[in-house]
């Protein structure tokens, strides 16, 4: 079945450090890929998405590129801020099976220290 | 613009008591609606989805049920709560068609069953 694997957290960085959160997937067909962010005590917000190979999603300084050859969708940001502290979820949807279901990774907790 | 509301924000209930969580969406018509559960330290699990009034699909067998009495209202219920029902419940609505749908999440309800 479909699955998403994220790097285990927690990840702790200093302000202005470079961030990478790894995400790899297993899926039938060519999925759409998403990154969601969950700030403390809140629901999930869509951060960015990509729907086909080599697409780059970007938002709020975050980027992720859909790499079909490595089945990856790593999240990056050049300079993190304290306000980026949150849990980040990678997710996918495939065109087969239940086209409505998002498959989520387990989440990566990011803490940015001043 | 579209907004999604969930209430209550937090709920503490005894084992064996009933449950009713409500989700409403504004600013869109005939949305796809979803209930997810996030257990502590884990990713999200899809519980139910609905593509229209009175149409409910269940993704996992469980102690919960869902109903959609109106176009933009989605209710999660239980007749008798179990300890294992504790978690963070997220409602989402979807825009777009099938594979290209993007899901947007509400603020969530934190349920603690004692």
How is this structure best described in words?
The complex is a heterodimer of chains A (114) and B (114). Chain A is 0% helix and 49% strand. Chain A has 114 residues and is mainly beta. In chain A, strands 2, 5, 6, 10, 11 and 12 form a 6-stranded mixed sheet that branches. Chain A is globular. Chain A starts with a strand and ends with a strand. Chain B has 114 residues and is mostly beta strands. Chain B is globular.
Give a quick precis of the structure.
Chain A contains no helices and twelve strands. Chain A is mostly beta strands. The termini of chain A are far apart.
* Range of helix content of chain B: under 10%
Low-confidence stretches of chain B: none
Q: Per the principal axes of the C-alpha atoms, what is the gross shape of chain B? A: globular
Largest sheet of chain A: 6 strands, mixed
Sequence stretches where pLDDT stays below 50 over 5 or more residues of chain A: none
Radius of gyration of chain B: 13 Å
The overall strand count of chain A is 12
Total count of strands of chain B: 11
Distance between the termini of chain B: 38 Å
Largest interface: A-B, 23 and 24 residues
Largest sheet of chain B: 7 strands, mixed
Helix content of chain A: under 10%
SSE string of chain B, helices as H and strands as E: EEEEEEEEEEE
Roughly what is the average pLDDT of chain B, rounded to an integer?
90
* Residue share in β-strands of chain A: over 45%
Determine the structural class of chain B based on helices, strands and strand pairing: mainly beta
Q: Name the overall outline of chain A.
A: globular
Which value, in Å, is the CA radius of gyration of chain A? 14 Å
What are the main properties of this structure?
heterodimer; A: mainly beta; four-stranded antiparallel beta sheet; B: 114 residues; mainly beta; seven-stranded mixed beta sheet
């Amino acid at each position: 079945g479909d699955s998403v694997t994220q790097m285990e957290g927690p990840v702790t960085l200093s302000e202005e450090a470079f961030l990478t959160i790894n995400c790899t997937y297993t899926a039938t067909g060519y999925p759409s890929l998403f990154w969601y962010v969950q700030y403390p005590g809140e629901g999930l917000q869509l951060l960015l998405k990509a729907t086909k190979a080599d697409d780059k999603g970007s938002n709020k300084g975050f980027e992720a590129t859909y790499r079909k050859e490595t089945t990856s969708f790593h999240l990056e940001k050049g300079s993190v801020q304290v306000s980026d502290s949150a849990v980040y979820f990678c997710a996918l949807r495939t065109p087969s099976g239940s086209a409505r279901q998002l498959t989520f990774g387990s989440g990566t907790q990011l803490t940015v220290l001043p | 613009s579209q907004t999604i509301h969930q209430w209550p924000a937090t709920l503490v209930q005894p084992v064996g008591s009933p449950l009713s969580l409500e989700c409403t969406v504004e600013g869109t018509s005939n949305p796809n609606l979803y209930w997810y559960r996030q257990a502590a330290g884990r990713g999200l699990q899809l519980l139910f989805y609905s593509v229209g009034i009175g149409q409910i699909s269940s993704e996992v067998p469980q102690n919960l049920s869902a109903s959609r009495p109106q176009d933009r209202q989605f209710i999660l219920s239980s007749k008798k709560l179990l300890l294992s029902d504790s978690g963070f419940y997220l409602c989402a609505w979807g825009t777009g068609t099938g594979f290209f749908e993007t899901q947007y999440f509400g603020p969530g309800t934190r349920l603690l069953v004692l």
